[in-house]
Write a structure and sequence with these properties.
- With 391 residues, the chain is an alpha+beta fold.
- The protein has eleven helices and 16 strands.
- The strands form three sheets. The chain has a seven-stranded mixed sheet with strand order 6-5-4-3-2-1-7, sandwiched between helices.
- The chain is globular and about 65 Å long.
């Protein structure tokens, strides 16, 4: 019997379209002899739709037509069985699911919000849980976790937008203690949205103004000299971690931008291929010392955050000093980082299958833990009584 796999994507995020690209890529590579694939698209207005046409990238050119030709649904738990159910008095449409597979990027979906909803419903789902997803989306929280595990990070400073708006000079003075050049980032976004490189105070002000458009929490990091950017993917959970090959990223810009990742390649080749359009070298041309360091830190970081499924971890290397710094983790990376596994001999179909297997194992293990008590402390409660039955 096939596993009914609900692939969730889209959402109220600036990375909405990136999520669609990743999900369509994944659905094309899933083993249809093993899985019944049920696409679940979340619009920018947070409405849920399902339908076979959602597996085609062309469907998303006209969202109004998409809504008319597909079914608006809600996810429900009915006696520990999980269904997509349509709206309306008679609720005509009802599709059972076994496992949810979120392929989502950015705020409101990748950051623990969707994972929390799935936990509340009770359905098994692929990828990191609420806690790992929250930290994985928040670059400041990541830094603090990495620091507590003595993992190598660059100097950083962070602040809220209100602190900057109320006392701009104080915040700028704290930023300048790091010394230029610096990288300015919205703390909880991905896909390089709102990120800028600042070499002067004027650059810094402009960069902060840009980042504040997207986030209330802003991160300032010391830029790495003689920079080589490398990424690695990790598959597993807190018990076991497998590693992909390491890629070396190429860009003409000071920092890797959203355009580098998703737009510039698409201008030449047609519709964007997501992270596939990015310039890269696999395996990375780095020393054995740096390779060992990246691999060791990646496993420690993945475990420290309690991540699950597939993640991509980004690193920065000072090539001259031969020093490596962990940059950030992507709990649900663009294209699910399959391009880092294929050169190692792991087909995308196999990677997706491994992710589902890990999700099912994680779910079964979770069921062995105590979450509720059979006793009901409200059983002896009497209206008007302050304490009810003595406990």
């Amino acid at each position: 019997m096939k596993i009914k796999l609900g692939v969730i994507f889209g959402g109220n995020s600036v990375e909405h379209e990136v999520s669609i690209i990743s999900a369509v890529q994944a659905m094309k590579s899933m083993n249809e002899e093993k899985y019944e694939i049920v696409p679940i698209y979340i619009t920018k207005e947070k409405e849920w739709y399902t339908g076979t046409s959602l597996r085609k990238i062309e469907t998303y050119k006209d969202i109004d037509a998409l809504k008319k030709s597909n079914t608006k649904v809600v996810l429900i738990n009915d006696n520990n069985k999980y269904y997509l159910q349509s709206f309306g008095m008679f609720k005509k449409y009802k599709k059972e699911l076994d496992v949810a597979f979120p392929i989502v990027h950015g705020t409101n979906v990748e950051d623990g919000i969707l994972q929390g909803y799935l936990e509340t419903i009770g359905i098994p789902y692929v990828g990191s849980d609420v806690y790992a997803s929250v930290v994985g989306q928040d670059k400041v929280l990541q830094k603090l976790v990495y620091k507590s595990f003595d993992l190598p990070i660059t100097d950083f400073y962070w602040f809220y937008d209100i602190e900057y708006l109320e006392n701009k000079d104080k915040v700028l003075n704290n930023c300048k203690k790091i010394k230029f050049p610096v990288v300015v980032k919205p703390a909880t976004l991905g896909s390089s949205v709102g990120i800028s490189f600042a070499k002067t105070e004027e650059d810094l002000v402009n960069a902060i103004d840009e980042a504040i458009k997207y986030d209330k929490k802003i991160l300032i990091e010391k830029a790495v000299d003689n920079l080589v950017e490398v990424n690695i993917s990790v598959l597993g959970n807190y018990k076991m971690q497998e590693l992909s090959l390491i890629e070396e990223v190429t860009t003409k810009n000071d920092v890797l931008t959203f355009e580098d990742k998703y737009i510039s390649g698409g201008k030449k080749t047609g519709p964007s291929k997501g992270m596939l359009s990015l310039g890269r070298r696999i395996p990375a041309k780095i020393s054995e010392k740096m390779q060992n360091a990246v691999e060791g830190i990646a496993k420690k970081a993945f475990k420290a955050l309690g991540s699950s499924g597939v993640a991509r971890i980004d690193f920065m290397i000072d090539e001259k000093a031969q020093t490596v710094y962990i940059n950030e983790i992507n709990s649900c990376p663009g294209s699910l980082a399959f391009y880092l596994w294929e050169p190692k001999g792991v087909k995308y179909t196999e990677l997706l299958d491994d992710m589902v297997k890990i999700a099912i194992r994680d779910y079964k293990e979770k069921q062995t833990k105590v979450h509720t008590f059979k006793s009901n402390i409200l059983e002896g409660y009497k209206p008007g009584s302050k304490t009810g039955k003595k406990l």
